[in-house]
Amino acid sequence: MLKKDFKEAPEKKKKPQVYITSDEVVHERRLLLLKRFGVGLFGFFLGIVLFVLVTSGGGILRDWIEMFIRNRFVTQLEMLRKTPETPAPQVLQTTPPPVTISEEIPSFFEKITKPFFEVLKNQEKPQTLPQNLISSSFTDLFSGVGWLDVSRTNMYHDKVITAFTLEPNFTWRKLDGAHIQQERFLKKNDNGIDRRCIGSSCLEQRGLGLFYNGGEISLPREMRSKNVQNVSIGTLGEKWLVGVTAKEKEKYEGWVFFYSPSTDGSAYSRVFGEANAPFLSDYEGTIGFGGTKDNWIALYGAYEGQAYHIREGKPFQNISKFFGIRAMAGGFHPAILRAGDGVDARWYVYSLTKGRPVFIKLFQDGNVGDIRGSMDFTQSVLGTNFFQVSFAVADVRGGTTALEADALTNDGNEELWQFVDEGFKVPSLARVVSINLNNYPAEVWTATIVDSDVFEGKSNIEFALSNDGVSWIPARIGEPVVFPDPNNNRLFWRATFQPEDGARFSSPFFDRIRVDYKVKFL
Question: Is the pTM of the predicted complex or chain greater than 0.85?
C-alpha cells in the first residue's frame, strides 16, 4: 500500500462558542425585529412630539403620545426581559453566566424621548409667583367714564344712576290739540293739598293734618307724641296709605300705616316704623307710594333717597341704591306708577314737588319679580323745559308701555305729552372695557375681580382680564388670574354681555366693579 506523507492542514480558527439560554435567543430575535421597523415608527412619533413642542399646546395629545410610546415600546422591552419562556434542552457544556440587563439602564426609546417629555412636563408646572409682589386694589362706581375706554364700550352709561345698561328705546312727543283729563293725574293743588279718593270717599292731606270726607282725623297713636315733620297719603287698590316723617334727636324716622275708616279706634294698622323702621335718615323727607295692595313700593324722598319693594309673603327688598343723591335732585315728594303685571312689570317714579321734575324707570328681573335695574329719564326726556310733569299709564301692550304726561312748561303753558317705552335696543354684543388701571412702574403678574355688582338680565356675561390690552384671559369672580407673560406693566378688565331672547325688556344692570392685583416693581 502506497503511503503518502502529508501534513495535516492546520485547524481552522474556531469562533469562541457562546452559550445562551433560549430566553436570550428569543430576546435577540425580537430586538432584531424591533430594529427593522422601530426606526420608522420612532421617526413618526418623534415628529408628533416635535409638533406638540412647536405649537406649545395639546396637553391631552402629549399625554397620550407619551403613554402610547411607553406602552408599545418601553413596556414591551421590559416584558421581554421579565417574561419567562419554556426552557430549551441545554447543551452539556460549560455555560457562562447569563447576561443580565440592569433595571437602572434606560431603554433606547427612553434615552431619545426623555428630553422632549421633560420640556413638556416643565411647561405644565404652574408659574411660581415671586415673594416680593406688592398688592393693590381698584374700584369703579361708574360715576364717570374717566377709567373706561369709551371707544370700545357700547353700553349705555346712565350718569345719574351711575350704571351701565342697554340703550333705552323710547319716544317722547307732544300731543298737539289733545284734551287733558286732569282727574287722571296725581298732583297737589296750588295750596299743597293732596287728595286721594276710593269710590266716593276721599282722604286728604293738608300740611300735617289729615281729613276724611272733609272731617279732620287724628294721626296714628304712635305719632301723637312725636316731632312730626311731614305727612303724606296714597292708595293701593281699596286701601289708603299714610306716611309720617318724625325727627328724633338728629335723625329722621319714616313710618307707614294702612288707614281704614273705623269707629272703634283701630283705623290705623302699622306697616313699619320705630324698631323695624326701614327709613332712618340724616335728611328730612316725604314718603311716596305706588303699586297694588300686595305688590308696592314705598320711597323716602329726601336729599338721599331710600326705598323698599314690598310684596305679600316676602321680605322687603331694599332698592335704595337706585335713589342716590343724583337721582333725588335735592329731594322731592315721590309718586309711583306700576305698568304691567307679573315678573315683567315696569315702575315709573315722578315728582309731585313743583319746580323739581323727576322721571325714573325701574325694571324687574323677568324671573321672580325682584326690581334689579333703573334708568333716569329726567335729563334725556324732560331736560330743562318743564316746571312740573305728572304721569299716568295710558296703555300696556306686551313689553310696550305708553304713558301720558300733564306737563307744565317753564313758560307757564300746560301741554299733553306722550312717552312710549319699548324697552331696550339689543346689540349682538354689549361691552364695557376699562383703560389701563396700573399707574405703577411695575410688572402686573396677577389680578382678581374680587367683587362686581351686576345683574345679567336676559344676557350671558363674561369677564376677562389682560395685562397688555391684546391678550384676554376669562376671569371668574373671586378667582385669581396669573398672566402667562408678566413682562407687561398694564392692567385692563372687560365685561361682555351676549343678549338672549327677551333682552329688550330686562337689560343688564352693571354699577360697580373691584379689581385687586399684584405687581413687581422694576
Answer: no
CA distance 384 to 106: 86
Phi-psi region of 469 (alpha: psi -120 to 50; beta: other; left: phi over 0): left
Helix or strand (DSSP H, E) at 68: helix 59-69
Which of 70, 94, 89 shows the shortest CA–CA distance to 18? 94
What are the DSSP calls for 51-67, one per residue?
HHHHHT--HHHHHHHHH
Give the amino acid at 249. K
Q: Is the pLDDT of residue 217 over 70?
A: yes
Q: What b/e string do you get for 365-392 counting C-beta neighbours within 10 Å, with b at 16 or more? A: bbeebebbbbbbbbeebbeeebebbbbe
What Rg, from alpha-carbon coordinates, does the chain have?
41
Phi first, then psi: what are they for 143, rounded to 5°? Answer: -70, -20
Pair 253, 300: CB distance under 8 Å = no
Whole-angstrom CA distances from 61 to 69, 126, 425 are 12, 19, 45
- The span from the CA of 167 to the CA of 145, in Å, is 16
Do 352 and 193 contact (CB within 8 A), yes or no? no
Instruction: State in Å, rounded, how far the first CA of the chain is from the last one.
Output: 111
Does 266 have pLDDT greater than 80? no
